[in-house]
Structure formats: structure tokens, C-alpha cells
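Re: your question from the hallway

Yes, I did run it. Sequences:
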Amino acid sequence: MTSASGAAIRDYPRRVRFPLSLLLSVVLLAIAVEGHLKGREWAGEAGLLITSMLLMLWAGLVSGHLKQVLARPEGSLAPHYGMVQLRVALIVVSPPLVFAIVGALLAGLSLVASLALVLLVFSIYWSWPYFIEHGNLLMLFGPSLFFMVSTLTELPREDNWNAWLKISGSGTAYCLLAIVFSLALSAFTMRRMLRLSESSFEYRFDPSICWRSGSSPDSDTPFIALFQNLLPWFGRYSLQPRLSVYRAGVLRRIAHWRRGMGPRSPMVSGLSMALLMALMGMFFLIYKERHSHAETGLMFIYLVMLPFNRYGHSQRRRTYLEREALFPVARERFVRELGYASSFDIFSSWCFLCLGTVALRMLGLFATVSWNSIPYLFLLSLGTTLLGIGFSPWFLRFNGDKLPALILSLLLLIVGGCAGLALRSSVGFSGWGAWLSIVLLLCGLGALTAYLGYRSWGKLELGRRDLW
Amino acid sequence: MSETVLRTQAVEKRFGEKRVLNGVDWSVPRGSVVGLLGRNAAGKTTLLKLALGLLRADHGQIELLGEDPWELSDETKSRIGYVPQEYHPYPWMTPREVLDYIAAFYPHWDALFIDELLRKWELDSDTLSKDLSVGQRQKLGLLAALGNLPELLILDEPAASLDPAARRAFLELVLEVVSEGERTVIFSTHILSDLERVADRVAILREGRIVYDDDLDSLKDSVKRMRIVSTSELPRDLDIPGLLHSKVQGREAVISVICENGSLAKELERRFAAQVQVQELNLEDIFLEMSHD
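Structure:
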């Protein structure tokens, strides 16, 4: 092994995320093995969950690291740099990958499904210009959590779950399509990645620059970056508000609203949501949906997508708030702009989510989901979202830091998920009173924490008592 | 071995609708310290990136150390050093780790030289790179570019983001390094004091072309401002060879011109039946005249 390869390998343990992930993997595996040896009922399900988590974890981490080290001038100018990095990444990712695939096969998963899962996740990460952000991490755990919720709540205990997991013919076709798509996307991105200039690095790969300048704040919105990478002209037509363009009137007013949300329009976020829903829908097909299983899955999508997107926007909006707080602007303006932005934002997301659900249902996915469950799901996601936005000021001290944001996002999902599951099993999708009560409770908590949080932040961080 | 380290011929580059470089012909002789001068957004960074193969030209030919920069061999890569405008080291590494990491990719890395500079430049080698100041990061970038003892060192406005004191200190470091060995240095800047301090040759980029490429002293000697006072009305179009800029008002004109020879003033006196006053220009005035639209 050359000294260059040695240096590249030694770089992995230097980053905390790799030892931590290794530790997490070992712990998870130990739990699964212990359960299996003692014949626990949940051990098989946990095996599936752990396998998918490990696959995604390593695919995400290694591809993220790889992008960071390649997208630099050294990537083009240092001898052998790119090939050494790729070779070492392959070495690092191979043992957990092989282990996970073997584990998946032993657990009864189809090989083609395992490969599709790995490649799809890897290509998404790989093609994502921005590396680890809280959204990225959520993407990492989101599908895993989806499997966990759907598996643990809906798995028919009397059946052999291996049979339940058998892949259907159409599922195989989807998997093969996913593999081809992933390979093509990865190859395309790799070609670009190896030729990236240092200006690209500055603009696209430094999260602190993204956050602080607000010039490319889409790092928290999944798939937008993927679009940007796939379609270079995408950014040009992304409805970025340039206030000078909008001379007056309604357009200028809308531009002001959108400014509060960051440069990208919620329509783009909506498109990204629709794509993510389609991907999740694909997983439904692969794993053969059942009636109640589909409903739970849809609920999970609603729980993930709205809080996820809105939380991202609220964090972005905070950046604007922080910047504008330096100017002598009345607090009413802040409140008004943030209010407009939030309403517009959530409404548009809700529209896209509804449209996505209808489209998927017409395509045959979620065909067993009742129409009248959708408003309830939206209510729940709205409550969870507002709760999340409410808590976000408490994390302002860690602005730009992914870990608190991740923890908050996960807490939200757990709270929202528990509330939703409890409501569905107790009152179903017909008890308006119970659902509204829960939502109002979540919104009330969100409003209270938002008030206290922003006040505390304004006072402590900005030294302004008049902000709230 | 070629005496020209970089040669560009009719190089063009567009970004969307915007044409940044419009037929650049330029050559850099071995062993020279060349300042690439141009106003903001003149295309200096683009030209340097094209030269390094970090961008691809739309048209034209580029030769860097005898090779196409887009297809540089590993052997040639090991002879080049590059410091970008803002160096972003690996944020999870300390400067020492950054240098060790980069060193591993080069067959000839002078660790002793780098260690000495690391101590001399008082770079905090135990702090994570992401916590370094801008000045410290630039120093680290220069160290990372120097360790392989490059024949060609390319610096893209390396001191632009530094304050005057830090910039002076940084350029002194560059000078110190440049003075050792037969090294070709190309650096872009729009700060003329930097240029005067370091460069022995200057290339001026204007409207996407190299409009001047010669010794710094020749530049100072050749560019003059002349005040022409004629006995009769002067034509709007003076048609003077090497004319950079002119302002004609009736019988008077003020021109800036590149004098190919010392007899231009006398020629103008004869041609326009006028008195001609020649004014020497400092580098800043020369730059302003040459980059005048």
C-alpha cells in the first residue's frame, strides 16, 4: 500500500463520525445477535432494521467524506489524488457492505433489493453537493425509521415474516431500475466531482459559508441539490427572488415573503417532496403493501416531510432574522414577514403533499388508504411541525450545527408518531375532537416554546430586548 | 526543456451568456515572477483556473509545462503548486495533519523545509484548520503548495482577503520563497503595491484579452501621459499608435499612450503643430489608463 493510500485511510478514524458509527454498528449488531441467540421474537425484525440502517449509514458517511476530500483543488492537482481516494473509500465501505448484504440475504431479503437499496442511498448521498447537514442525516435515518415503524407496528405476528418480505415481480423491476439509475447517476456525478474547481468547493461544500451568507441555503432541503447537480440550468429557473427585478406591487410583495424563506421557492421544496414520496412509494411496492401498513406508511411520510421541510425553512429563516436584527427594523416587521412566510410555506407544502398523495393513489400506490384519513394526517403533521419550529430557537446557539437539529428532528418524529399511532388505534380517522385536541396541544406547546426561545435568543445572542 | 512554462493561444471562455475571456494569447517565460493584473471580474481567476485545468476552455489552446492542463500527467502535477484566493484546508485536521496528508501524495516533498517554515511563520499547528484565521489559512495554503518544491507556483490573489499588515507580511514570505531557486511564479492581483513588491514582469488583462505583457520596468518606461496643445483644432480621432486613452477638447488633448520609442513626442509636435508635454506615470496611473474602458 502506498503512503498516499495509508494517509487516506488514516484520515477516516480522525473524523469522529466514523468511530462513532462503528461503535453504533457494533452495539446494534450485538443487540440483534443477543436477541437472536435468546430466541427473542423481535430479533428478526431488528435484523432487518439494523441491516438497512447499517447500509445507509455507511453509504452516507463514506460518500459524504469522499465528496469533501475530492471537491478541492487537490482533487485535480495532486498526483493520483482522486483514484487513491476512490480506492480507499471502496476498501473502507467494503466490509460493512459485504456484511450487511450477507445479513440481508440471511434475513430473507432479495439480493437485488439489497443492492438497489444500497446503491440508491449511495447515489443520493454521492450526488448531493452538500455534505452532512441535519437534513442529510435525517435522510439517513428517515427510511430506516420508516422501516422500523412500519415493521414494528404492522408486522403480522402469526406469519413468517420472511415470506412477507418476498419481493414481487414488479418490485424486482423497480429494483433493477433503481440500480441502473443509481449507477448512471453516480458515474455522472463522479465525472463532475473529479474535475471540481476550488471555487466550486468554496461555494458548494463549505456549510459555514452556505449558512452564514445565506447564498445557498438549500443544504437542508433534500433532492434540490440533486436536481441542481443533474440539471445545471435548474438554478437559473429556481424562482430566486431578486428584489430589484420585482419593481412593485404583488410580485415584490411575494418576493419579500419568499425572502423570509430563503432564496428557493416552496414549489421546489414541493417537487422534492413529491420525489421523495415516489421513492418511498417504490419501497412500498418492493415490500408488498398491506392495507393498514400503507396507512401507517403514509402517516409516516406526512410526519417526516412537513416537519422536515418546515424545520429546515425555520432554521433558514432564523439566519435571515439574525442578519436583519442588525438593522434598525421594527419587530412588527419581523413578526409579519415571518408569519407570511410560514403560512405561505406551509400552505404550499400542504398543497404539494396532497397533490403527491392523490397522484400516487391514482397510480395505484396507497390505493387502500382512505381519503378521509388525509386531513387528519395533515393536522398531525402541522402540529408536529409547529412544535418543531417552536423548539428550534432553543438550538440557536448551535446554529448550523447538525447534531442538535438532528436530535430535535428525531424527537419530533417520535412525539408526532406516538401521538398519531395512539390516536389512530384509539379513535381511528373519525374522531375530530381527539385529533384537534392533540394538534392544538402540540401547536400550543410550539407557540409557547417559540415565544420563550426567540425572546431568550434575542436577548442573549443579539442583545436586543425589543425583538419579541 | 521548454523555456516557456505556460502558453495560451486564442483562449476563450464563457459562463452562460457572459464572455469572460476573449482570445487570450499569453506566454510566461521560465524563472519569471509574473503579476497578472486586472480589475475585479476581469477574468484573472478564470484564466489561472484554465491554465491549471480546473476549468476547461471553450476555444483555444493552453500548454502548461508542455502538456494540456486538462490532461496533466501525475509527473507534471507534482511540479505545480497552487494557492487559491481563499484556501480552505480540511476542517477536521490540524495544519500539521493537513501538510502530512498532502505530503503523502507527492514523491518529492521537502518535510524539513516545510517544518522550518511552519515554525518560522508561527503557524499554530495544534489548532483545527477550521478555527484558523484567514491569514493563517493562507499561510497554510502557501505551505501546502510549496512542500513539493514546485517549478511553477500559481497564486490567485493570495493576499486579497488580508489586511494591509498581514498582506505585507504574507508577500514577504512569498518573496522569501521565490528568491530561492529557479522558480516561476504567476500571481494575480489588483493591488499594485503587491505587484511592485514581488513581480519582475506584468501581464494586464482587460476585456478578456492580455493587453500588455512585458517587464515591469518597461511598462513604467513606456506608458506616458501627454498633453498636446495645438495651434489649430485637433481631430476627434487622433490615430496614434499605442494609444490607450484620449480626451480631445478643441485645440487641446490629453492622451495616454504606450511609447514604442522615445521620439513619439517630437513626432506628435510635428504632426499636429503643437506643444507636447510628457508626464511620467506611476504604476497605479498606468494600470488605470490601461484598464480604462
